[in-house]
């Protein structure tokens, strides 16, 4: 994760303290987790729940069976939120014992910059997510036609969670990180039984002469690349407190709203089932991510690690692929696409790529200044000027929300004309 500086094992081993000093006040190097920032979570949740309940209960006439399954999944997800909030302080103590901690580089030169912050707390979110997904499948049977793909999706997500934690422990180089998601994506593609066709946009039908085009292995290659992109894009659009989890929350909320709109507007049963399947995966992701954000919001008490970024990216990719809205998903990821294009010269090795491509922090003004590194975070600071870390995160999340709103607007104006 880009917001921390990992300390070596030798530097973290402290000499044993005399018995009489064990009751002394904790130093700045000792960890004390802050209470969850529930007010921030409440405000963010209102932006989602208001349109969510309006669409489900008022705007669309959704079949009662589908509506019940969505709401049961939402109730389980809400339980997952509270479990996540309770488990993170417990897990934080264990990861600190294992010397999995970091120091916040964006607070270097201040007392906060010297505090050991527990790392890789995304493992809590991933574990709770998988338990919820399995419990939902066990108690509320998923349609038999979707069982294989549902289990393949969970296998891909679990595989990516493991690889992300492996990265946090071994601190793998960038080029290896780009390859890791491809292994998890293969699990999904092996079980994919959906269509491999695309609907030709209406303006191009006279030139192509087809309304539907069968792509075969090319379509599966596209899904493979999409899964790899989504997983890595969350990981490289990072560097400030709350950004990784915050962008996941915004995109996940947009995915759920999009799925509900498609379920309500469609009359095709299989099409509805695909979007319901997507909701089953994204609602637990959204709820558990909100639980993590309660501790990761500025000033962060925990770091999420590559464990979370890989897990979150793969979950959203799987939901988009098996829900058959990969084009829409890419527009939701528009800031991540821009960040990837800005990062490409450094990731490809044409321009030197430092270990941490973070903004420059000034402890006197408590503001961040953009560097020449190719990230959206630095580009945003170069364009709009120096600002505090909290303000920068809020602006970037607003930008993410605007990208999602642009996607909804684009689908609305092109409906009936483009497809």
From TrEMBL:
Molecular function in Gene Ontology: glycosyltransferase activity; metal ion binding; UDP-N-acetylglucosamine-dolichyl-phosphate N-acetylglucosaminephosphotransferase activity
Family matches, as InterPro entries: Glycosyl_transferase_4, GPT
Membrane association type: Multi-pass membrane protein
Needed cofactors: Mg(2+)
Subcellular location: Endoplasmic reticulum membrane
Pathway info: Protein modification; protein glycosylation
Its job: UDP-N-acetylglucosamine--dolichyl-phosphate N-acetylglucosaminephosphotransferase that operates in the biosynthetic pathway of dolichol-linked oligosaccharides, the glycan precursors employed in protein asparagine (N)-glycosylation. The assembly of dolichol-linked oligosaccharides begins on the cytosolic side of the endoplasmic reticulum membrane and finishes in its lumen. The sequential addition of sugars to dolichol pyrophosphate produces dolichol-linked oligosaccharides containing fourteen sugars, including two GlcNAcs, nine mannoses and three glucoses.
Protein family per UniProt: Belongs to the glycosyltransferase 4 family.
Protein name: UDP-N-acetylglucosamine--dolichyl-phosphate N-acetylglucosaminephosphotransferase
């Amino acid at each position: 994760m880009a917001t921390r500086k990992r300390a070596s094992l030798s530097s973290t081993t402290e000499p044993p303290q005399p018995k009489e000093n064990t009751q002394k006040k904790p130093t700045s190097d000792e960890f004390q987790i802050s209470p969850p920032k529930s007010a921030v979570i409440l405000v963010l949740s209102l932006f989602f729940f208001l349109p969510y309940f309006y669409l489900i209960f008022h705007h669309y006439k959704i079949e009662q069976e589908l509506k019940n399954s969505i709401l049961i999944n939402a109730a389980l997800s809400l339980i997952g939120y509270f479990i996540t909030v309770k488990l993170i302080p417990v897990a934080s103590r264990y990861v600190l014992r294992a010397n999995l901690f970091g120091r916040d580089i964006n607070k270097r030169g201040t007392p906060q910059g010297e505090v050991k912050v527990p790392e890789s707390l995304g493992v809590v979110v991933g574990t709770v997510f998988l338990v919820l997904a399995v419990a939902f499948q066990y108690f509320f049977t998923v349609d038999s036609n979707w069982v294989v793909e549902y289990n393949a999706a969970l296998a891909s997500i679990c595989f990516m969670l493991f690889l992300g934690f492996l990265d946090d422990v071994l601190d793998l180089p960038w080029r290896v990180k780009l390859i890791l998601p491809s292994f998890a994506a293969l699990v999904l593609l092996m079980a994919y039984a959906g269509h491999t066709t695309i609907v030709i946009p209406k303006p191009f039908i006279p030139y192509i002469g087809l309304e539907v085009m069968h792509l075969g292995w090319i379509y599966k290659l596209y899904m493979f690349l999409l899964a790899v992109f989504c997983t890595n894009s969350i990981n490289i659009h990072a560097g400030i407190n709350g950004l990784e989890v915050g962008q996941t929350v915004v995109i996940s909320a947009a995915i759920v709203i999009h799925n509900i709109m498609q379920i309500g507007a469609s009359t095709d049963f299989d099409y509805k089932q695909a979007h319901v399947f997507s909701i089953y995966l994204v609602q637990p992701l959204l709820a558990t991510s909100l639980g993590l954000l309660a501790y990761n919001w500025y000033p962060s008490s925990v770091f999420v690690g590559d464990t979370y970024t890989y897990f979150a990216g793969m979950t959203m990719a799987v939901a988009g692929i098996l829900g058959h809205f990969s084009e829409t998903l890419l527009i939701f990821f528009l800031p991540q696409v821009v960040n990837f294009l800005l990062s490409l010269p450094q990731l490809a090795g044409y321009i030197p790529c430092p270990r941490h491509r973070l903004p420059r922090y000034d402890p006197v003004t408590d503001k961040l200044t953009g560097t020449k590194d190719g990230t959206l975070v630095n580009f945003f600071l170069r364009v709009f000027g120096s600002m505090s870390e909290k303000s920068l995160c809020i602006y970037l999340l607003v930008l993410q929300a605007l990208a999602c709103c642009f996607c909804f607007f684009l689908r609305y104006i092109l409906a009936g004309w483009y497809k």
